[in-house]
## 1
Amino acid sequence: MNEKRTSIHGQWSGRLAFILAATGSAVGLGNIWKFPYIAGENGGGAFVLVYLICIALIGVPIMMAEILLGRRGRQNPVHTMATLAEEEGASKAWGLLGWMGVLAGFMILSYYSVVAGWALSYIFEAASGAFSNTDAKGVSAIFSDLTGSASSLMLWHTLFMFMTMIVVAQGVKSGLERAVKWLMPGLFVILVLLVGYAMAEGNFAQGIHFLFSPDFSKLSTDAILIAMGHAFFTLSLGMGAIMIYGSYLPENVSIARTTFMVALADTAVALLAGMAIFPIVFANGLEPGAGPGLVFQTLPIAFGQMPGGVIVGLLFFIMLSFAAWSSSISLIEPAVTWLVENKNLTRGRASILAGMVTWALGIGSALSFNLWGDYKLLDKTFFDLIDYLTANIMLPLGGLAIAIFTGWVMHRSSSRGELQMGESASFELWHFLVRFVAPFAVIIVFFSAIGLIK
Ligand code: PFF
């Protein structure tokens, strides 16, 4: 039976600390960099609608499931899954889920760090006044100068990985809580300000129409897969990051309520970013489908033109870098806790080791914007391929396994006890979503994407 375990890595100081950390993990490049560019590439409105449905029907219930597993297991994801499976009379092979998470974490962080490096370098571009009075062409030249230079990208990638390792080595719970408390609201305020600018100076009507009026003829099956994958990515689900954070969660905190807060904050940031970016895209005759450079080629136009734009731009890129930072530490946390618990390494050594592996893998992504740009597999560069594989395949697979485990393997009494929701209608709804809706949705989207269901 489940006697209450404690994590050897300690606990959050309370509910607010967990909400901050989980929001820090969820809100990141995924919201501000990735969401607008994939929405742009996949036709806008219909894609956004599918993404929102996936957040509500798949993301929220799976997030609750992942947190409850973490809090019950209180170990790294590999051992948490193996222990809980044993307790429920299932195979220890469920530990494999944890392994896939550790691997996905390495892979995601390797390219995430390269993009976070762009944000770091833009802090200096903004401070130097490089955006002042530039037009769309000038701003896009700044971006291609940066990505065209292998040595610059390597430098920023190295710096960002270094920053990540320093925090991870000290333990996520020490400094970060405090930083996130100020920076998340700060980011929010700047985004609102930017939406205000977009309203006044951009083509707001067209931007909003693009984002929110669904045209289903533009929606491909691949786009549905990408929207679903992004729901996992943006909420940090399916790879054990939120499970680990759940393992530091005190007993008496409501998992349902905290999940709602995190999902709400995450979705709000993504939508605000879209509402700031697309009006600028249309006002300047840019392409919504411009790809990974979209944010970096649009917002600087606003910073260049608005009064006080140097300061606003500077603050924006500082906060974006922080948002990326607080996400990146959660990406590597599953690997680090595993190394500490199994290989008897100190946190410091474990962080260095995990960081070096990730850094090395990231070289492939840094170079795929320049020297290796022509090497493609399935028409994708190394960067695109790792992104596609992790966000659209590994995370949904991880999420599927979590849904099957909590919905079908775990006894109702175990999950109900952990969620502390009693015999309520909300528990029934959660159980239904996690048992039927989420797994079947993932399976159907997968099969249609590989062409088995037309
Ligand atoms: N949720 C982060 C973002 O949207 O930027 C990325 C991420 C963090 C994905 C942690 C997965 C993860 F485990």
## 2
Amino acid sequence: MKKLAILGCTGSIGLQTLDIVRRNPDKFKVEAVTAHTDIISLQKIVEEFRPSIVGITNENYAKNFNTCYPCSVVAGKDALVECASSSLVDTVVCAVVGMAGLDGVVSAIQAKKRVALANKESLVCAGEYITELARINNVNILPVDSEHSAVWQCLTAGKSEDVEQIILTASGGPFFSYNNISDFDGITVEQAITHPNWKMGKKISVDSATMMNKGLELIEARWLFDCNNVDYIIHPQSIIHSMVKYKDGAIIAQLSNPTMELPIQLALTYPDRIPTATPDFVFDKNLTFFQPKEDLFYLPKLAKDSIKQGKSAPCVLNCANEKAVELFLSRKIGFVDIQKLVKSIYEKTEYFKINSVSDVKNIFDEITAKTAMDYKNILRI
Ligand code: NDP
Ligand code: MG
């Protein structure tokens, strides 16, 4: 029986993890959960799954939490750390969105838990630090992101020194058919968060629409698999989840229906595989591939540049993007402004070596403040 902490249990990945637990009560017990603002959903989750510890990361919302069920409640900045490091827990699902998830990831590794990682932003910001911490603590970081789960599965086909390239697939998002920058005019928040193949949280949906999600995933892959040769191809059906190319020219791919159930579950059960509730894959689809349109969607180019630059470059890119997406979601800037703003902040910032979690947090504070302060000037609005 695996004893889980689910950090970000009220989100898209958190709720899908709970579905897996619900279907497999003999295999998993939820011992700790965290939420940020969605107290109504949290109460329902607590009453159904009866965890021992409940974390509410946003202190202002903690007073609304009210349950007769006896559990210990931790509010505020210690919530992620307490849940991730609890001795009642052996597996931590890191499903918080954004850099805010970093403390949970770090604590889970320091406490030597099995880490099922969905929170890509923490690895993007602190990749070198986190992977070194995992190595020292002998912890395997198991990918939840579907592309990285695919790569991880494909890597069993050969030796790591024989890998030539990791090739991620990208659906292209809702606007892949657009050919001119003027086509982006007037894109609404509602259009941007409606993804053709996946139902996800708002932030990652916007990242998928701008293609920044693929940029973040290239950086994530670089750290998870210690490989600098990472690239991507557009595959609109999202059936091939990613590929690994070996020295001899063999390309190994992993296929399944577009579902997060499989990658989440595999991160929890590995090395075992158990049935999923997703219907069997039917071979009735045409699989197509296209080159990315990087002149139009240029954020992945910046992500590749940040991998080359190293140091704090990926962190700066991510932090500028987090703020830009927030500004778009609050309707202060337009869709096309996201990439303009991120590029401008990224290109104006100097990079330095990251030595600690506080270095990462300082960059986050500095870059998000700068993005918030300068966006009107940069975008001339
Ligand atoms: P959601 O927005 O659906 O959920 C985010 C979760 O994080 C919620 O539980 C939310 O709590 C909590 N949260 C939000 N802000 C904070 C904060 N400042 N501190 C602590 N907790 C916070 O996101 P997703 O589930 O879609 O994504 C989660 C992560 O997984 C992201 O990094 C994403 O890139 C990655 N991912 C997601 C996929 C998907 O299919 N959704 C696929 C692959 C990766 P509350 O709701 O209570 O406010
Ligand atoms: Mg993904």
